[in-house]
Amino acid sequence: MPNIKQQKKRVRVAADERMENLRFRSTAKTLAKRLQAAVADGDEEKIAEAHRRLVSWLDRAAARRAIHRNTAARRKAQADRLVSSSALVSSAAS
C-alpha cells in the first residue's frame, strides 16, 4: 500500500480506469453475442441495428484505448463477415 499521497491517487485512478476498460470490453462482447443471435434469427433489421451498435462501440472503445485498435479492427471484420454471410444465406434461401 502506498504511503505517498500521489501514489494513493494513482492507485485510485488506475482502479477507476480498469473498471471503465472492463465495461467497454464486456459491453463489446455482449453486443457481439446480440449480433450473432440476430444473425441466427435472420431478421435483417435486427442484424443491421446490432451491427451498427457493435461497430460504433468498438470504435469508441479503441478511441479511448480500452481495447487495442487492431483488436477493434479484427472484431469489426469478424462482424462484417458474419453479416455478409447471413446476407448470402438469406438471398440464397429466397
Strand residues, percent: under 5%
Radius of gyration: 18 Å
Task: Provide the low-confidence segments as ranges.
Answer: none
Element-by-element helix/strand order: HHH
Structural class: mainly alpha
Number of domains: 1
User: Biggest sheet, in brief?
Assistant: none
- Indicate the percent of residues in helices: over 70%
* Overall average residue pLDDT: 93
Q: Quick one: how many beta strands?
A: 0
Question: What's the name of the CATH homologous superfamily?
Answer: Ribosomal protein S20
Quick one: CATH class?
Mainly Alpha
Whole-Å distance between the termini?
64 Å
Query: Could you say which overall geometry the principal axes of the C-alpha atoms support?
Result: elongated
Number of helices: 3
CATH topology: Methane Monooxygenase Hydroxylase, Chain G, domain 1
- Assigned CATH architecture: Up-down Bundle
Structure overview:
This protein has helices spanning about 5-40, 45-65, 70-94. The protein has a single domain (about 5-94), classed as Up-down Bundle (Methane Monooxygenase Hydroxylase, Chain G, domain 1). Helix content is about 85%, strand content about 0%.
Blueprint (SSEs and pairs):
Layout: H1 5-41, H2 44-63, H3 69-93
Short description:
The protein has one domain (5-93): Up-down Bundle (Methane Monooxygenase Hydroxylase, Chain G, domain 1).
Question: Which characteristics define this entry?
Answer:
mainly alpha, 3 helices
